[in-house]
Amino acid sequence: MNQESNRKVILKSRPDGYPELSNFGLVEEPIPQPKEGEVLIKAIWLSLDPYMRGRMRDVQSYAPPVQLGGVIVGGVVGRVVEARTPAFAVGDLVVGPLGWQEYATSDGRNLLPVDPALGPLSTAVGILGMPGMTAYFGLLDVGRPNPGDTVVVSAASGAVGQVVGQIARIMGCRVIGIAGTQEKIDYIVKELGFDVGINYKTDDVRAALASACPLGIDVYFDNVGGDITDAVMENLADFSRLVICGQISQYNLAEPALGPRNVRLLTTHQARMEGFLVFQFTARHDEGRRRIAGWIREGKLKYKEDVVDGIENAPAAFIGMMRGENFGKLLVKVSQE
Ligand SMILES: NC(=O)c1ccc[n+]([C@@H]2O[C@H](COP(=O)([O-])OP(=O)(O)OC[C@H]3O[C@@H](n4cnc5c(N)ncnc54)[C@H](OP(=O)(O)O)[C@@H]3O)[C@@H](O)[C@H]2O)c1
Questions:
Q1: For 289, which DSSP code?
Q2: What is the mean pLDDT of the chain?
Q3: Per-residue pLDDT reduced to its tens digit, 91-144
Q4: Distance 38 CA to ligand 1 centre (A)
Q5: pLDDT value, residue 3
Q6: Residues 185 and 218 in one domain
Q7: Ligand 1, residues 47, 152, 160: which to mutate, most atoms within 8 A of Cβ?
């Protein structure tokens, strides 16, 4: 790479259905110069996350869309390489929404310090960052599991799902994970200690859930939506909690799918269904980070990362994630630590 340039991935066109490589462009520009009061950051780790698919649509949701020609949004761990503010020093490690690019400037308001003592740098956008906080607060605050409960999680080997299942085990729950390959099922059961794994591509999910959850499902942590969620709703326990974290099976549909088709079962089981955003718990993220880091240190919590090298490979990796090709938290290694 030419050290004098900044390579960035822009949105060339809006995907129609599943994203394709032609929707992305790789642009090389001079490294941006920080203004007075700003810092220049060199990216080390870029996080690839399903929410980015939503930002590629021309609709306002809880955040504005990426503009055509604009850098794709994304969380980055990086190092300050130039500081024109006393608030930061060269060498500081930071995390912030700096996008799919090798260098970015910031006035510091969107940056948080990274404490390398808590874990490897990549975890600041993984298990100790946004996905880890999503798992922790979504499960504990929204799902409210009790010891002995049966907890089901979909996209169970992914960045969020793998953490949800392990925290549920720490809380004394029985855990059933749903994922899309035998390798992922083997991982969550044999490595992470989930009680049962269901492969939604080869198993009859309804029958497998009925047999794995004879007393019904107390907490469902929903990462995918669609038919898997319908199948879960047919196996609920009374007073169960459905945590609507994400609906990845719907993100690439040109037209919204029909459903859910069995909401009446919430009445039958006096169940509660609740959506949440990780940001609603921002004031408590330090608590989540501390507890997760503690469980990792005690050997109670493991995590798996799926690392791709080079910013130029981010689009293909992101497209792969939408098709289940990632195995663990998907990260781009943008530069050496
Ligand atoms: N509410 C919040 O604040 C918040 C924050 C972060 C993430 N999320 C949501 O949490 C979910 C998981 O995110 P993540 O970062 O942990 O991603 P991830 O699970 O690491 O990666 C996505 C996984 O989704 C599965 N998948 C893809 N298409 C699917 C389909 N049609 N049906 C079923 N599964 C499918 C694939 O695994 P398989 O091989 O198992 O299919 C894929 O590996 C997403 O829905 C995301 O939007 C929400």
A1: H
A2: 96
A3: 999 999 999 999 999 999 999 999 999 999 999 999 999 999 999 999 999 999
A4: 35
A5: 60
A6: yes
A7: 160
pTM confidence score: 0.97
Q: Which domain holds residue 96?
A: 5-123+305-333
Q: What angle do CA 190, 153, 243 make, to 5 degrees?
A: 155
Clarify whether residues 105 and 232 are in a common domain.
Answer: no
Q: Per-residue b/e over 158-186, b at no fewer than 16 CB within 10 Å?
A: bbbbbbbbbbbbebebbbbbbbbeeebbe
In the chain the first and final C-alpha atoms are separated, in Å, by 16
Q: Given this model, what pLDDT does residue 43 score?
A: 98
Q: Is residue 290 part of a domain?
A: no
Is 294 inside a domain boundary? Answer: no
Q: Please tell me what DSSP assigns to residue 294.
A: H
Q: From ligand 1's centre to the CA of 43, what distance in Å?
A: 24
- Check whether residue 180 and residue 244 sit in a common domain: yes
Please report whether residue 86 resides in a domain: yes
Choosing from 224, 276, 304, 305 the residue with most ligand 1 atoms within 8 A of its CB, the one to mutate for a pocket test is: 224
Nearest-atom index, ligand 1, CA of 279: 3
In the chain, how many domains are there? 2
Ligand 1 proximal residues by C-beta, below 6 Å: 49-51, 131, 134, 155, 157-161, 179-181, 184, 223-224, 245-249, 276-278, 321, 324, 326, 330
CATH of the domain at 28: 3.90.180.10
